[in-house]
Structure formats: structure tokens, C-alpha cells
Amino acid sequence: MRTPVLSLLLAGACASAIAADTADLSEGEIRKVDKSAAKLTIRHGELKNLDMPPMTMVFQVKDKAWLDKLKAGDKVRFQAEKQGTDYVVTVIEPKGD
Fold first, then answer.
1. Phi, psi of 67 (to 5 degrees)
2. Phi and psi based region of residue 41 (left: phi greater than 0; alpha: psi -120 to 50; beta: remaining)
3. Of 2, 73, 80, 97, whose Cβ has the fewest other Cβ atoms within 10 Å?
4. Has residue 58 been placed in a domain?
5. What digits encode the pLDDT tens for the residues 34-61?
6. Other beta carbons less than 10 A from residue 96's beta carbon
């Protein structure tokens, strides 16, 4: 059984992790959706977690269902990670204006 203090600490830790993830998102614009290859081409700003300057590049996606919801021209916020030799989008959301 959890004590109220422990529950509050756990809730705070989860909220901090979510806020940190959201703060780490980079801005970009979808340039191409390639459903057959399960890839996105994104023109993006700096990717701080990858020490990468702004550019346009191709990414694999963690969830192929995203490919049905995205189209060229969409403005997004996303996070990518290097997995082996691939760069993979692990989080993506529409950019709010």
C-alpha cells in the first residue's frame, strides 16, 4: 500500500518526465510520407539530443500508423533517436500555432 506522500512523489516524477519529453521536441515540416518504406522526410530545426543542425532528412518511424495521419506540408513537433544506423521518430505531434 502506498502512502499519500509516496503517491505524490511518484505522480510528480511522472509529470516531470512528461514535461521533459515535451520540452525536448523539435519543430519540423513533413516533406514526404513514404508508406511503402515506412519513412518520413522531415525538414527540421536543430535536434539537440542528436547534436544535429537544421536540415532535411529521412527518418524511420516507431509507429507506422502515424504515416496514415501525416501529409506533406504538415507542421509537427517530434523527437528522434539514433537506433543502430537509423534515425527513428519516436514521438510526433501536430504543431500548435
1. -65, -25
2. beta
3. 97
4. yes
5. 999 999 999 999 999 999 999 999 999 9
6. 6
pLDDT (0 to 100) of residue 11: 47
pLDDT of residue 13: 43
Residue 47's domain spans which residues? 25-94
Please give the tally of structural domains in the chain: 1
Cell matching residue 61: 518511424
Whole-structure pTM value:
0.75
- For residue 13, tell me if it sits in a domain: no
| 83 in a structural domain | yes
CATH number at residue 71: 2.40.50.320
Predicted pLDDT at 18: 43
Residue 52 lies in a domain: yes
- Alpha helix segments (H runs only) across 1-97: 4-23
